[in-house]
Every structure is written in C-alpha cells, then in structure tokens.
Design brief:
The complex is a heterodimer of chains A (667) and B (340). With 667 residues, chain A is an alpha+beta fold. Chain A is built from 20 helices and 30 strands. In chain A, the strands form eight sheets. In chain A, strands 18-21-22-26-25-24-23 form a seven-stranded mixed beta sheet. In chain A, helix 1 packs across helix 4, helix 5 packs across helix 6 and helix 11 crosses helix 12. By secondary structure, chain B is α+β, with helices and mostly antiparallel strands. Chain B has two domains: 83 residues; 231 residues, BirA Bifunctional Protein, domain 2. Chain B is 39% helix and 20% strand. Chain B contains twelve helices and ten strands. Chain B has a seven-stranded mixed beta sheet with strand order 1-5-6-10-9-8-7. In chain B, strands 2-4-3 form a three-stranded antiparallel beta sheet. In chain B, helix 1 runs antiparallel to helix 2 and helix 1 runs parallel beside helix 4. The chains are: A alpha+beta (667), B alpha+beta (340). Chains A and B meet through helix 2, helix 7, helix 10, helix 12 and helix 13 of A and helix 6, strand 1, strand 3, strand 5 and strand 6 of B.
C-alpha cells in the first residue's frame, strides 16, 4: 500500500526521515518498496504481508506499528460513539456472511469537489479524486482500513437488505459492466433490486452523481472467504475487496462511520444532517485471551529475553498484559485478528526485539550418518557415466503442447492437462521426455555437427483419470559423421552404461507394439532378467521430418526405478584362466531374417563354457544374403586344449549352426 | 718398425671409429683398415716377406690387432644400431589434441551436488517427493486455508483432474508433511526438487524452477540454530565468511517467518552494484514450523519445535557462475551447457 509520509508522521509523532522509516519498517515489519515525492506529499510504498491486511492497510494501523517499533505506546485518537437514530431499516438475511452492517442516511448534501488537501493526499496514496462524498469514503478507508460505500438514497427503494444474489440476477457495477451473479454472491439490495456487490463494488444505478442530495452511507463487515470467492469468480479486484478478503474487525465499522459522517458534515455543504443511523451487529466480537509461556518464547527464539521486555513489546502493540509467574496473560485487541496462538505473539516479540540480536548457536544433535537416498545417488552415478560417454545433460520443461503430441503420434487423452496454462505450447504435462529432446537436437544441430544429450526427469501419465509420475533417463544422438550406424553407436554406449552400473546381461528384443515416434524397423525393447526396462531405437523419419531434422537420430529411454532394482548387485570377480586361449574365425552366409543374437546363443549353447568370447568383425550383404564373420575365443579353465579338441568343438558348433539356423559356412 | 705401425693403426682406428655416426661410415672405416686392401691387411700380406724371426714376432701381434679391430667394430656397430634419429621423430607439440567427445553436466546438477555434499556432511538426509501434487499437501496441510489470500503468494498451475484437486507443486514444502507422516523427530532433512510457478518468463523469471529446502525438527530447535546452520552452509558454499540477516515475513507454514539475506558475496557487505548498494542479497524464506503443520502430519500440538527454509537453485547458480538470464537453464542449448 502507498502511504502518505506526512500523515504517518502526524499520527505517530515519529521524528524519522522517510528513508529511516523505510529502513526501520523493513527490518521489523514490512518490506519497503518505493518512495516518491510530489509537492508537499511524500509517498512511501510498503508491501503488507497477507496476515496483516486487516490492521496495517491503513495509516492509523501503520502509525501504531511505527510507535511500537520505536518503543512507544500509540496515542489513540478520541472517537465519539455512534448516535443511533431510527429511520433506516436494515435486514441482514445472511448473518454469517455479513456480521455487521451500519447504515446512515445523510441529507442536504451538496456534491462538489473535495478540498485540495484531501485530493492531494488521495493522489499521494494512488487513488483518483472523484467528488467530496466518494473522496471521503476513500479517505476514511485509507486512514482506518475500513472500506465504505455511499448510495444515492433517492435511487433506492425501501429497506436495505443484505442477501445472496438470485439465480440469473444481473447488476451493472461502477465499472459500467453488467455482471451475471452467482447464488453465492452477496449483494446489498433494496426491496426491488441489488444495489451493490457487497464488499467488492457498488452499483452504477445507485451511485453518487452531481444531482445527489441525500445518501445512504454504508460501513459494514463481510465474510473474507465469500468476498474472495466472488471477486475471483467475477475477476474484480478493488481496494475494498482487497481489504475485505484479508478479514476486517467488525468493531472497525463503527469508528469509520463516525469519522466519515463527521467529515461529510464538515465538507459536504452547510446544511448536512444525519437523519438516521442503524447498526445491525448481532454477535459482538470481543477481545480474546492468550496465555503466553515466557519459557516457550525463549525456547523458540533461542534467546533469553527478560520478561519485562516481552511485556513492554506487547503492550506497545496495544495488548493488555497481566504477569502471573512465568505466564503472560495477554488480552488481544479485536483488530489484531492475526494474533491467535502463542507463536503469533512470539513472532511479535522476536521481530521487535530484533532478529539480529538473536545469537547463532550450534544445535546439539545425535551424531549419526544419515540414511542415503539410493535413487538420487544412482541418478548421480548415471550422470557421471553418461558424461564420460560424451553425453551432455539438458533440463527441459515438463510441458508441451498439442502440436508436439500430434507430431510424435501420441494420444491427447493419455496426457495430464494444465487447467490454466501459460500458453497452448505448455498445455499438457509431458507423457514422454523424447519430444522435448528432439527440439534440443534440432536447435543444437545448428551449432554442432554431433549432438549427444541426456535428461533425467519425470514423465506424467494419465490412465483414464489415474495420474502417475515416473522418473526416466533418456538420451539422444545425432551425428553427421555416422549416419547409417547410429543405432549401433547408441547401443554400444548403452551397453557401456549397463556394464558400469553392474548389469550383466541385456536383451534387445524387437517389439511388436505401437511404434508412435519410433522407427518401425530400427527399434528394440530393452529387457533385463525378463523385465521391460526401456527402449532404444531411431526416431521414425516421418516424425523427424516434422521437426525439420535431416539426419538420423537415435534415442533411448529407461525407467530409473526398474534400473535401480537390477543394478543393485555388487560386481563379482571372475578368476582369470591360467591356460591359453585360441581364436578361430567362422565366416558364413545367413538368411536375411536370421538374427545375430540367435547365432550367438547357438554357439554358446553348443560350445558350452569353452567359448570364452564371440566377436563380430565383418558384416556385408550380397544378393539377398547376409555374410557374417565371427571370431570365437576358445579355452578351458582346467587344462591346455589340444588342437584335436579344438577342431572337434568347432565342428560341433558349425554343424549346429547349419542344422539349426541353416547358415552356409564359407570354407 | 712393423710393430710400431701396428700400434699406430690400432690407435687411429679407435679414434676414427669413435667419430663414426652411422653404420655406413663405420663400415668404411673398417674396410680402410682390415678390408682387402686395408692398412692392417697389407701388413698381414707382407708377413711372408719378412724374416722368420720378424714373422714370429709381428705375426701374432698383427693377428691380435685384427681381432681387436673386428671386436671393437662389432661393439660400435651395436652401439650405433640402438640409436634413434631424433630429428625424424620430431613433432609440433603445439598442434591441437585429438577431439574427445566429452559431456557436460547441467549447472543446476552441479549446484545441487555442492549443496547436498555440504548438508550430508552435517548429517542431513536427502528426501524427494512428487511434482504433481494434491492441493492438500501443497496448500491445506501447510496451513494455507481454502480461499485465503496467502494462496495468491504463489501463482499456481492447476491440473484438470476428475477427482482430487491437483496442482504442479509450487514449492518443495509438501515433502515436509509427506516425510513427517512416516517419521518421528528428531531428524534433519533436505529436499531438492523441481517446482512450478504460473508466471510469464523473462530474464529474471521462470515458470519452472529448482528449489531446495531444509527441515530440522527436534524438542528444542530454535531461531538461533537456524541462523547457525544457514551461516555454516553459505560460508561453505561460497568458500568465505558469510553473514545472515533475517527480516520479518509471512508464510502460512511457519511462525515466526523470515526473509533471509546473506552478506553480499561480491563486496562482503561493503555495498556494491551487485547488491544494489545494500550490502545484502535476498536469498529465500524461512521460519519456525507452524504447529498446524505438525498437526497435519499427525504430531501432537506443541510437542516439537523445528525450522524450515528454502531457496532457489537458479539464483545460487546465477550468482556462482555469473549467468545473466534465467532462461538459459531450460534452453537445452549446448552452447550454454558445454561451458560447465
């Protein structure tokens, strides 16, 4: 809120300059925002914390705060009592939503401009002057914190009724827009129609005009939650709604009414007369008590503050304190709605005592090693391995748009949708991490011949309204230098990763599921110990085209939680054989559909543990046949093999290959 | 006469052979002395013209000289053979090294690791929680009443959800309640994680952020403890003495609540442009855990005391690496990431 320095000074009696005041309040109460000087007025802006709106969004409230911070008691202004007079009937139909309503009929008013000093002060506080009556309501609101409203009495008919809006009821408000009201909106009405949206904005038809001579002045309290609902629904924020949704002490309504009617009598024309005042206040709010344990104050703040100091701090805030031993019996003023618990009072003591005066102290804690976060440690291990394999880490948004979903051939209904997205490109939560990785690939290919990236992050799934969040590791490679063999470059890196995290055997299976953005003939499911843990493959050229990527892109995606489960085993040393091994090569023609993995398993099955290693060293295709050349390492752990034994083994392996897989071994 | 000649031949051979630099020169020298027309060969050939007495004296001498020469020649030949032509070996060591494809980790990861290392050394446990969160854990359990202006402090992404009200978590604090539901004090934890704020992006604002928060709960944890741990942490993180300043604030889940500032890492508090001449840098929020939060987690009211504090990783990374635009972090641009 923007405050007038001059007014704060008048009310609090502070001797501080605006700058000193800004510093004091920032360290002890509210953060200073801005300062502006125009003519006689200096404007000071502070951001008032949401729990202090009910008292500090006013000059009197702020002056009280300044006095307390300077160690003084605030000298309250003397306010006379309401002088009730019959003549205005007020009916509150929603007592929970409107705990108090004071209405006054004031007649013989001459609408004119308000005095210059008032106009200047309103401007200093960021409010536009309109006419004397409206300016007074605003002025009193700025001074006391109580929003007020004035109706043109001649444009109302009968009683004032506080009720909920009827279904389909409409009202034209002061902003000259017509609103269709909801049944939960509270309105101020007369016998015929709604006059105002209670606590939010007045109605256009009953507003003060140049012709107005008599008014109904309203000073009321409204339920904060309901005001907030209404202003959110209709998207209207006013000085009034801003204060009411922060909750206002119903006792303040009386003070504001007295102050406003005095001002109107003074500057509203010579014959102004208050002809009726009605106050509906069925359930009076009274001060409440908090028992504050002074030991708890010291324990929570970590500082021994003398009880007399605690007492004077609270008394300067206007609380009435009685000391009984270690307990302070505190009577809380109704305007400090925020003070409800001991901790609330401890905060008041702490901030005014000064947090800088609280000494740092090492906590006394049990010495123990904390439990390790296995997932986070594992992810960090993955990051180090991948960086070593040449991958750089990216972090992408968890969002993407309909366009990305369509480009990647995914289904909208599988996605979690944001109700209030920043833009249509961020309307859905990512159902996979690869879509955003493709955007990174496209961007980086402009600057680098080879792009190799990974990301660790969550994907969000929507299974018919059942949401889940799954941590993934994904990676991508695009390489100008290695186009056709890109899949194998990626597979090699992935195998190195598996080796490093202690996974012994991996199975790459051709999957027959939906391909979505995957290349239909260059993708595989990754299986470990029979568990599906992810996929590897190239991106379909049809999808790449939509991303304007011209080269091949190989990607992988792994489920981190599955990976942790199987990688947890410790590595184990295998004794190194003392006996020599020999290498034998086999070259063969195989059918185009014969898989390398079947050849390897046949050799392993038939060679048993004498086959130490199998390596592929040449592949080519000729007239519909694939030629493979393999180097087999043979040896025994218990003796040196004779050449006859080796020949016999090779013969067994070859005949099995011919029989089982119909390969043609080249001699 | 002949005897002196042999001695001279031997010493000349030794001198010449010592100067030979390669096998060719060495061979030529050998030929010069013991070749078909070599100087020593001539003496040997001439033996038959000598008297029997002379022959008996010179013969063995000449033969011995020849053997010595052959022996010395072989040794020298070996010596020359193991020599390397350093000139031929010479390379330009200033040429660039072979390009190795090396990956970089994201700066957010690097800052997280640094923070986690410091807290782990102080005995903190690292705990995580979901990003897609219920309204209960993100707000209500943390003492944000329904329809309360405190909810406006955090611009929220709401999720279209058929059942429970869901949000993208606006802070890491939901993990406080999730953790406390399962564990009893005393404990000290840190919670790293991604959070979301519904606000338009510019050089200083992002809707996707990384946060960090610490929670310490016990029987008598107090404000002084918080100040101590915060000071220890920031001094370790920046590698120099850092001071902490607390200002009053409001968060529904803490009471009392603070904003906390650290002494400027550039000028140490002497006031400079980096701290807008205030000597302090605003870092984050903190406070003593509100008893209502303990109650949400199932603890009895007023049995425990604790503090919670959180701050943004991007801000720390920007300070540490002097990054001028927050949008780089989620850009996926390798020109940025490769610098780390």
């Amino acid at each position: 809120m923007k405050y007038s320095y001059t007014r704060l000074k008048e009310l609090s009696g502070t001797k501080k300059t605006p700058k000193e005041l800004a510093e004091l309040l920032t360290m002890r109460a509210f953060e200073f925002e801005e300062m502006k000087t125009e003519g006689k007025e200096t404007q000071l802006e502070f951001s008032i914390l949401p729990n202090r709106g009910h008292d500090a969004l006013s000059h009197i409230g702020m002056a009280r705060e300044i006095s307390a911070l300077e160690g003084k008691k605030y000298g309250e202004l003397a306010i006379s009592k309401l002088d009730l007079k019959a003549g205005l009937k007020v009916e509150i139909r929603e007592k929970k939503l409107c705990p108090r309503y004071i209405g006054a009929v004031i007649e013989n008013i001459r609408i004119a401009q308000s005095p210059k000093w008032m106009q200047e002060r309103l401007v200093a506080c960021g409010i536009k002057p309109i006419n004397n009556v409206v300016d007074i309501t605003n002025y009193v609101m700025l001074e006391t914190g109580q929003p007020l409203h004035a109706f043109d009495a001649d444009k109302t008919a009968g009683n004032i009724i506080v009720r909920k809006a009827k279904k389909g009821e409409t009202i034209k408000l002061l902003d000259e827009k017509i609103y269709e009201l909801n049944e939960n909106d509270l309105v101020i009405a007369d016998s015929e129609k709604a006059l105002a949206l209670a606590g939010v904005m007045g109605g256009f038809d009953s507003s003060i005009s140049k012709e107005t001579t008599s008014i109904i002045l309203e000073s009321a309290s409204f339920n904060s939650t309901n005001i907030r609902k209404t202003r959110t629904l209709h998207n209207i924020i006013t000085e009034s709604s801003h204060r009411f949704e922060r909750d206002i002490d119903p006792n303040l309504a009386e003070i504001a009414m007295v102050r406003a009617s005095e001002l109107i009598k003074k500057i509203g024309g010579n014959n102004v007369e208050v002809t009726a005042i009605s106050d509906m206040y069925p359930k009076k709010v009274k001060p409440w008590q908090i028992k504050l344990d002074t030991d708890y104050v010291s324990s929570l703040l970590g500082e021994k503050i003398p009880v007399s100091r605690m007492k004077s701090i609270l008394e300067n805030l206007g609380l009435v304190i009685k000391v009984s031993g270690k307990i302070l019996d505190c009577e809380i003023l109704t305007r400090r709605i925020d003070l409800k618990t001991q901790e609330d009072l401890i905060e008041e003591i702490g901030r005014i005592y000064g947090y800088e005066n609280i000494k740092e102290q090492a906590p006394i804690v049990e010495v123990k090693t904390p439990p390790q976060n296995a997932k986070r440690n594992f992810e960090n291990n993955l990051r180090d391995i991948l960086a070593g394999l040449g991958f750089s880490e990216v972090m992408n948004y968890s969002f993407y748009g309909k366009e990305d979903i369509e480009k990647c051939l995914l289904k909208i209904e599988d996605h979690v949708e944001v109700a209030n997205p920043l833009s249509s490109e961020q309307q859905y939560l990512r159902r996979n991490l690869i879509s955003n990785l493709l955007k990174n690939v496209e961007l980086n290919l402009k600057n680098f011949p080879k792009v190799q990236i990974f990301e660790i992050g969550n994907k969000f799934c929507n299974d018919k309204g059942k949401f889940s969040e799954i941590p993934l590791l994904v990676g991508a490679i695009a390489d100008n230098g290695a186009n056709d063999l890109l899949f194998f470059q990626m597979k090699g890196k992935l195998e190195a990763l598996f080796h490093d995290i202690g996974i012994q055997s991996t199975d790459f299976q051709i999957s027959n599921e939906e391909y979505k953005f995957w290349h239909p003939t260059r993708a595989a499911r990754i299986m470990i110990n029979g568990e599906k843990i992810g996929r590897i493959g190239e991106i379909s050229p049809i999808v790449l085209k939509k991303y304007s990527i011209k080269q091949r892109v190989a990607v992988f995606g792994l489920k981190i939680e599955e990976l942790i489960k199987i990688s947890a085993q410790e590595k184990q040393y295998q004794p190194i054989s003392k006996f020599p091994t020999v290498e034998r090569d086999i070259s063969m023609f195989v059918g185009k559909e014969t898989k390398y993995s079947d050849i390897v398993s046949s050799i392993q099955k038939n060679g048993g543990n004498l086959v130490k290693n199998i390596e592929l060293f040449d592949v080519f295709e000729k007239e519909g046949e694939k030629s493979l050349a393999l180097r087999i390492k043979i040896g025994s752990d218990s003796k040196t093999l004779t050449s006859e034994e080796i020949d016999a083994l090779m013969k067994k392996i070859i005949s099995a290959l011919q029989r089982e897989l119909r390969v043609r071994v080249r001699k | 006469m002949e005897k002196e000649k042999i001695i001279i031949i031997k010493s000349r051979f030794l001198a010449e052979i010592g100067n030979s630099r390669n096998e060719k020169e060495l061979y030529d020298i050998k030929v010069k002395f013991v070749g078909r027309n070599g100087e020593l060969t001539k003496i040997l050939k001439n033996l038959k013209n000598l008297s029997a007495v002379e022959r008996k004296e010179i013969g063995p001498l000449a033969n011995q000289a020849r053997q010595e020469i052959e022996g010395i020649y072989e040794n020298r030949k070996k010596e020359l053979g193991s020599q390397v032509d350093w000139e031929k070996e010479k390379i330009d060591v200033t040429l660039p090294g072979e390009k190795i494809s090396r990956g970089s980790l994201h700066p957010i990861t690097l800052v997280y690791r640094e923070i986690e290392k410091i807290f782990s050394s102080m005995g903190f446990e690292v705990v995580e929680g979901p990003e897609l969160e219920t309204d209960w854990y993100n707000f209500t359990a943390l003492n944000f009443p329904l329809d309360h202006p405190a909810r406006d402090m955090q611009d929220t992404f709401w999720i279209k959800s058929p059942k429970e009200k869901m949000v993208l978590r606006t802070h890491t604090s939901p993990v406080q309640v999730r953790y406390m539901e399962k564990r009893k004090p005393p404990f000290r934890i840190i919670v790293p994680g991604r959070v979301y704020r519904n606000e338009a992006t510019d050089a200083a604002h992002e809707h996707t952020l990384h946060q960090f928060e610490a929670l310490v709960v016990g029987d008598d944890i107090n404000v002084g403890h918080f100040k101590y741990i915060a000071k220890e942490f920031f001094s370790a993180f920046f590698g120099k003495q850092i001071n902490i300043r607390l200002r009053p604030s409001f968060f529904p889940f803490t009471e009392p609540s603070f904003e906390f500032d650290i002494s400027c890492t550039v000028c140490g508090g002497k006031k400079c442009p980096s701290c807008k001449n205030s000597g302090w840098l605003e870092i984050g929020g903190a406070g003593m855990v509100n008893q209502n939060v303990f109650v949400s987690a199932g603890y009895p009211r007023n049995k425990y005391q604790g503090f919670a504090w959180g701050f943004g990783i991007e801000r720390l990374a920007m300070m540490k690496y002097k990054i001028d635009d927050i949008r780089w972090f989620e850009s996926g641009d390798l020109r940025f990431i490769k610098q780390f």
